[in-house]
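Milestone 3.1: sequence recovery, worked example.
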């Protein structure tokens, strides 16, 4: 099929490489002047993958959009709404959109698929592709499992059949809301894990348990299936987010706890703000999320703030382990 991958950063460049290996005709789009695009244009590779000669690299958005049957989007979550205003200038009503990104819009608490719908894309044309896996491992041939979800069962099945391989085993998601919230929320827990790697490593076990439970409560309050928090999109992605040296969010938390700054994108920062908004809207306690939000956004000594927020979590009133 003709597939265009919009965004050629670390994840977008891998997706273009991977889908080319699956026999598709792939166009990789990046914004002219952006570092990720210019590096690929000038050198034919980045720190993750070499640009397959079969891939068409372009900065012409119209070409990328109009030539595709399937449009995969892999950009920063907070830029999606503005970006879609550019995409919908072209004829896209018959095209399928696959969101390979994890986040929640900060000002509204909207899921990324909701942003596409509000941009004029039919829900039947939208899918999300999320789950565990780091590019550094995939390009070494180390396999993993991921999930594709959509409100359109036929689209979901078609995408899994076209995208599956010995490198990525796909599962069908059956709760789009829970899949999206869970995928975004794991980045928040990744920041918490990075803090604990510096302050108190043994607490990473409780973080995995309490973090998943916190996200499950939010998903349920929003109308999704709370069991989605224990699937591949959230709990299944903990190993690559809470423990891996490749995790941007874990590294962001680690450096924060050391009083340093991590300069690369960590989606969990903005997501903690969006989740705090959702917790308030739906009346759900999100203590770990609020602790991450505080260390990311409060003014003060970052290392000291991290210690204070952990202490506050221990000072909370005693509750039943599985409280609602």
């Amino acid at each position: 099929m003709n597939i265009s991958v919009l965004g050629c950063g670390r994840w977008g460049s891998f997706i273009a490489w991977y889908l080319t290996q699956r026999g598709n005709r792939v166009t990789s789009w990046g914004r002219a002047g952006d570092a990720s695009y210019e590096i690929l244009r000038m050198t034919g590779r980045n720190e993750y993958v070499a640009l397959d000669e079969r891939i068409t690299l372009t900065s012409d958005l119209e070409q990328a959009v109009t030539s595709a049957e399937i449009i995969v989007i892999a950009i920063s979550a907070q830029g999606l709404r503005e970006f879609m205003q550019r995409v919908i200038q072209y004829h896209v009503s018959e095209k399928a959109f696959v969101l390979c990104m994890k986040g929640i819009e900060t000002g509204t608490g909207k899921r990324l698929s909701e942003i596409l719908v509000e941009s004029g894309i039919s829900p039947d044309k939208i899918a999300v592709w999320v789950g565990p896996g780091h590019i550094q491992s995939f390009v070494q041939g180390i396999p993993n499992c991921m999930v594709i979800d959509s409100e359109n069962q036929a689209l979901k099945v078609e995408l899994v059949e076209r995208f599956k391989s010995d490198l990525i085993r796909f599962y069908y998601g059956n709760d789009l809301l829970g899949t999206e919230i869970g995928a975004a929320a794991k980045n928040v827990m990744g920041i918490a894990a990075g803090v604990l790697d510096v302050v108190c490593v043994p607490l990473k076990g409780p973080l995995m348990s309490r973090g998943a439970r916190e996200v499950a409560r939010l998903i349920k309050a929003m109308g999704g299936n709370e069991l989605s928090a224990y699937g591949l999109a959230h709990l299944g992605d903990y190993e690559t987010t809470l423990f891996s040296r490749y995790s941007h969010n874990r590294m962001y938390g680690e450096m924060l706890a050391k009083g340093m700054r991590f300069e690369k994108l960590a989606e969990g920062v903005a997501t903690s703000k969006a989740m705090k908004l959702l917790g308030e809207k739906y009346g759900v306690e999100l203590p770990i999320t609020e602790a991450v939000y505080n260390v990311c956004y409060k003014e003060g000594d970052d290392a000291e703030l991290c210690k204070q927020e952990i202490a506050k979590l221990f000072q909370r009133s005693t509750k039943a382990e599985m409280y609602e």
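The radius of gyration is 19 Å. Residues 66 and 182 are 32 Å apart (CA to CA).
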